[in-house]
Amino acid sequence: MTNRKTKRIATLADAVTARRVLHLKEAAALLGVSEMTVRRDIADNPGLFGYLGGHIVSAADIEGDAPYELARAADSHAAAKRNACAHAARHIRPEETIFIDCGTTLEYLVDLIPENYPVTAVCYSMNTAERLTRKPNVRMVMLGGVYYPSSASFSGGAGLETLEQLGINVAFLSAAGVDRARGASCVHFHEVPVKRKVISLARENYLVVDKSKIGKLKPAFFAPMEAFRSVITEDGESALRAN
């Protein structure tokens, strides 16, 4: 039994190293065991594996000092981010489809989805997906593509094609910089195609940021201010209202 488990762990580690991210179902099929067995193997080896939103990644990708470290960002202005999401949550309605952007601000929005609301939530980041799996009445759509450890998100043609098939009622977008004249920008260029596609498809777009982002301009521009119905900060929707 021990030898079989040792071989399983080695095979799983090799697969995660080669692919960077591996879905639980794929891992179970690869190893010829149940998903529960794979979960136990992951839990027994926290130094090797991380598990977020049904996906297995290297523990180093989660714990490493990436250019944009999610753990560090999550601690920055946390109270303001939670308050901004509390204002944004009033735009969540039952029986609708929402999009939740990547980053560490909008993960707080997931916690504010009412437990009795049947909602379809579209996302492309693993920290958001992990929280969505805890919501009993939420149907989650996880966009695929290439995995980027720097933001724990996916981007690529596969995700954009999936978006084309979806009807999105409300999109909640995040940004690392909000400039009145230039618009909304982020740090990572791989996020831009997803953000732009969502903005073009959604019926309502809201930019949700804490006030520390106001007045800043980051390298990856993705939308002018008029693309958003409003900008929501910890002070509500009155700050920097787009229209």
From TrEMBL:
PROSITE patterns: HTH_DEOR_1, HTH_DEOR_2. It comes from the Bacteria. GO terms for molecular function: DNA-binding transcription factor activity. It holds the Pfam family HTH_DeoR. Coiled coil: none annotated. This is DeoR family transcriptional regulator. It comes from Sinorhizobium alkalisoli. The lineage of its organism: Bacteria, Pseudomonadati, Pseudomonadota, Alphaproteobacteria, Hyphomicrobiales.
